[in-house]
Design brief:
Blueprint (H helix, E strand, L loop, with lengths): L3 H15 L15 H26 L6 E5 L5 H10 L4 E6 L2 H14 L3 E5 L11 E7 L8 H11 E12 L6 E2 L3 H16 L10 H7 L2 E9 L2 E2 L7 H8 L1 H6 L5 H16 L4 E3 L3 E8 L3
């Protein structure tokens, strides 16, 4: 019998997959945007927030800071950071997808938190010495020139400012016992991201990128949230559904194959004797020089 957690997961999965790509979704981006994309991002944040919250505290996020959230998506982390910096601080969220930013702004309007959202490509950021803390999660792996984005984040920091980034090492997922649908999901995701000129295994590169951008006191940690049950085991099937259009466009898979993978992943996730991780995530943080 399916557990209550599995039933809820299946219902949320159906709600997410009923929607298709927003007409405003940037063509260069692999995952869906708009309302459907926001739903996936909320799922990711619920699963990933415990390790992100720990990173932010370790990296030095404090009350009163002015914070940049680059590639903010639906603003879930942006709003949480705004609550942490409080009324004396401010968080600026920047994203490429205008439809998802409107959804983020709607949530911010009801929160009365110190948040501002801007529509901009990550590599267009040209501010200097404007922030105390800069952050990006799951952004660099989607960019053709992630080094430029990271360098722009460092430029945007005030002297002594702090930076924290998180991104994936997609080949390193845990799945036990081995599962053919999960292996195919990993293969297809990496292929479609590389087809867009980006790097789905960028995680280990982040430390060197941070050093090259001029950060000091650079630290690194790898987190691999792994689940026996619950929402964490729904991330794979939701993600492959959300890259469906990109896969079809690149002729990497057929819609029938995607349907089969989604069904097989759901059945695997429903089995409480299986283990499944979300993408292994490298966390890197450091400080900009005082002069």
């Amino acid at each position: 019998m399916m557990s209550n957690a599995s039933t809820r997961g299946s219902k949320e999965y159906k709600e997410r997959t009923d929607a298709r790509r927003s007409p405003e979704q940037p063509e260069s981006y692999v995952l869906r945007g708009g309302q459907a994309g926001a739903a996936r991002l909320r799922l990711i944040n619920r699963v990933k927030w415990p390790t992100t919250e720990r990173l932010l505290g370790t990296a030095g996020l404090r009350a009163g800071m002015r914070v940049l959230d680059l590639g903010c998506g639906g603003g879930a982390v942006t709003l949480k950071m705004a609550a942490l910096v409080g009324s004396e601080g401010e968080v600026v969220g920047i994203d490429l997808d205008p439809s998802i930013l409107r959804l983020a702004q709607q949530e911010a309007d009801g929160s009365k938190l110190p948040v501002t959202f801007r529509h901009m490509e990550a590599e267009e950021l040209n501010e200097e010495a404007s922030y105390d803390f800069a952050y990006a999660r799951y952004l660099m792996s989607h960019l053709r020139h992630p080094e430029r984005a990271l360098e722009s984040m460092v430029r945007a920091l005030r002297p002594g400012g702090l930076l924290a980034v998180e991104d994936v090492f997609f080949p390193g997922h845990i799945c036990y016992p081995p599962n053919a649908a999960f292996d195919r999901y990993l293969e297809l995701y990496q292929a479609v991201v590389r087809a867009k000129g980006a790097d789905p295994a960028i995680g280990p590169r982040l430390m060197g990128m941070a050093l090259d951008a001029g950060l000091s006191d650079v630290q690194v940690e790898l987190v691999v949230p792994t689940f026996r049950e619950g929402e964490g085991k729904r991330v794979a099937q939701v993600t492959i559904e959300h890259i469906r259009e990109a896969l079809l466009g690149a002729e990497l898979a057929t819609s029938i194959e995607v349907d089969t993978i989604v069904a097989d992943l759901q059945a695997f996730a429903d089995d409480e004797r299986t283990l499944m991780s979300i993408a292994p995530t490298f966390q890197v943080w450091g400080r900009k020089a005082l002069a």
